[in-house]
Amino acid sequence: MWWLAMPVLLLPIWWHRQKRERSNAQPLATARFLPRADPQQQRVWRWTDRLLLLVRCLLLAGVIALLADVTLPWRGDTVLVAPGTDAAWLDRQVTDAGFSGAARITVADPLGYLALHEREWKASARLLVAGNVPMPALRPQFRHKVELRTLAAPLPASEHRVAVVSKRAPQWRVLFAALDGPQKFVVTDTADAKSELIIWDVAEAPPAGLHAPLWWVGDDSAFPELRSARAVDGMRYADSARGRLWSATPPADASAARSLFETWQRLHYAPVPYTAPSQSIAASTVQTAPAAGALRDILLMALAALFALERILAHASRR
């Protein structure tokens, strides 16, 4: 509807036509004998005025185009690829879906990118999203039919340092010795600044300068903060200057060990995104995600340049 404001461009033209300039009058000695005549005014169009008029019209047209959020559909069939997707698997999916000649775009969030830039695609364009795509909270809605083919990526390898200071160290080490997978746990007997987890199961207090993100405390006498700590699901916890404190004891069986490890991973580390299942998303007339025109940034830069040029020409025309 903002395009209906285009008649506003007539305002600077009308205003420029109303500008008048008085004719220059020179006093003459014999002018006293001439009949009195009022000075005449005439409309004068100079090249600076015409250029200024053009710039002002372009400035208004640019503002209207920005408000109208203009977008020119120019993209055809496209494959949106998540980073780190296996090349061989991607080629098979592209061939099976019939997108062999389609363009490929690699973006971090394919579904989010498509929601923001969907108006760049033509109405007849086909879209394929492939790779490790996290499952959104709500089912996305697009104006185009989207073929979603996903492949869960393996967990990246990581190393975590655990320090065990306890007289029951063998019982604690059994918990980490049973773990297998991309996460590697390095268990040491000495705690340092690199330790992500410190298991402190002795009565002596730790050194004053020792800090860690998480402590498992087996003897509460070493940490007075745990004496009045809150209890949730049978586990007492408290925050201190050394880090977060959990009251814990060596697991007696496999079930207790699994529960302790899962609680640690769930509460202390960011959750791993769940990969969305492969599916076909039908076209919808309702789009809940915000859409922005691809020319918005270009229009903003053009408006800034036109405004600066308009101010320069306006100052020059007054001199």
Question: How would you describe the overall organization of this protein?
Answer:
This protein is of the alpha/beta class. It has three domains: 1-14 and 46-70 and 295-319; 78-154 and 274-281, no CATH class; 158-268, 3-Layer(aba) Sandwich (Rossmann fold). Helix content is 30%, strand content 20%. Strands 8-7-9-10-13-12-11 form a seven-stranded mixed β-sheet, covered by helices on one side. Strands 4-3-5-6-14 form a five-stranded mixed β-sheet, with helices on both faces. A hairpin with a 2-residue loop joins strand 12 and strand 13 (243-247). The longest helix has 22 residues, at 47-68. The chain is elongated and about 125 Å long. The model has no long low-confidence stretch (mean pLDDT 86).
Can you give keywords for this protein?
319 residues, alpha/beta, Rossmann fold, 3 domains, 7-stranded mixed beta sheet, 5-stranded mixed beta sheet, 7 helices, elongated, Double_TM_dom, transmembrane, Aerotolerance regulator N-terminal domain-containing protein
Give the helix/strand layout.
Blueprint: H1 10-17, E1 21-22, E2 41-42, H2 47-68, E3 78-81, H3 87-97, E4 103-106, H4 110-117, E5 127-131, E6 146-150, E7 158-166, H5 169-177, E8 183-188, E9 197-201, E10 214-217, E11 230-232, E12 235-240, E13 243-247, H6 254-268, E14 279-281, H7 296-317
Parallel strand pairs: 3-4, 3-5, 5-6, 7-8, 7-9, 9-10, 10-13
Antiparallel strand pairs: 1-2, 6-14, 11-12, 12-13
